Amino acid sequence: MKAPFHKSAVLLSGLAILGLAFNSSAAILTLKLNNGSSAGFYDGDIAPNLLTAGQLSLSSVTAPTGEFHTTFPVSGLNDGSAAANGNYTYYPAFTGNLGTDETAMPTTITFNLSGGYDLSMIQVISGWNDSNLGEQNFDLYLRIGSGSFVSYGNYQNLNPEFNNTSPSAYETSLTSDSGFIASNVTGIQFVFMDPGYGINQGGDGGTLIRELQAFGTATTVPEPSAFALLGLAGAGLLTWRRRLVR
Questions:
Q1: pLDDT of residue 120
Q2: Cis peptide preceding 167, ω within 30 of 0
Q3: Distance, CA of 53 to CA of 104 (rounded, Å)
Q4: pLDDT tens digits for 166-176?
Q5: What pLDDT, on a 0 to 100 scale, did the predictor assign at position 56?
Q6: Which range has the worst mean pLDDT, 78-87, 91-100, 107-116?
């Protein structure tokens, strides 16, 4: 019986290792920063990433029109810049002053990727010169492979101490101590909701988004030999179990 037991241990170890390779998610770490000296305090963190318009990693974007869309167009969500009003997008909390083609919160923004990617960091950068319109309250959803979007939590970055006349900037960074938030990610979805404090400080409240970012690398597809090893390991394990039953 020693030899079959030894083989089973090897087979189970092989399956465990391959299982780790197919693991799709990890615990998320959150870094929330906010600053009251400048609306563009975190603009220097904007860099080419998986969501930047024109990147081969980005297949398509679905996002509703925000308020004052000619001033803050939807393209400002991921154009790689925050140098001017045309590089921001504003979604208000209220519908009172909106036109027929403008959308208030909750606001769903979906980025479809061109393949599967291992995500190392997701960032939301926001801020404005007054009314504390940079505050964030959003849900994150990820699609793994060909599956449906799954919730990865709610994140809030608020500071009610910023007043109605001073600038404010916010940056939320999501990472993981395992090196990646999730693997084989084919879609990233943000749902922005009323942050709460801003609505009491002027305008229509809401969030002025300066940039949405996601960093990572293409998911490595296991070599055919790895799949063959998995098949052999499974077959060997079944054979060993049959022998035990006998």
A1: 98
A2: no
A3: 24
A4: 899 999 999 99
A5: 98
A6: 91-100
CA angle 98, 100, 105 (to 5 degrees): 50
Inter-residue contact 49 to 111 (CB < 8 Å): no
What is the tens place of the pLDDT at every residue in 53-95? Answer: 999 999 999 999 988 889 999 999 999 999 999 999 999 987 6
Find how far residue 90's CA is from the centre of its chain: 19
Residues with Cβ within 8 Å of 200's Cβ and at least 6 positions away in sequence, in order, are none
Which pair of tokens denotes residue 14?
Answer: 């092989």
**244 to 1, 3, 144, 220, 238: CA distances (angstroms):** 9, 12, 38, 37, 10
- Three-point CA angle 147, 144, 17, nearest 5°: 120
Note the maximum CA span of the chain: 80
The Cα angle at residue 219 between residues 216 and 223, in degrees rounded to 5 = 155
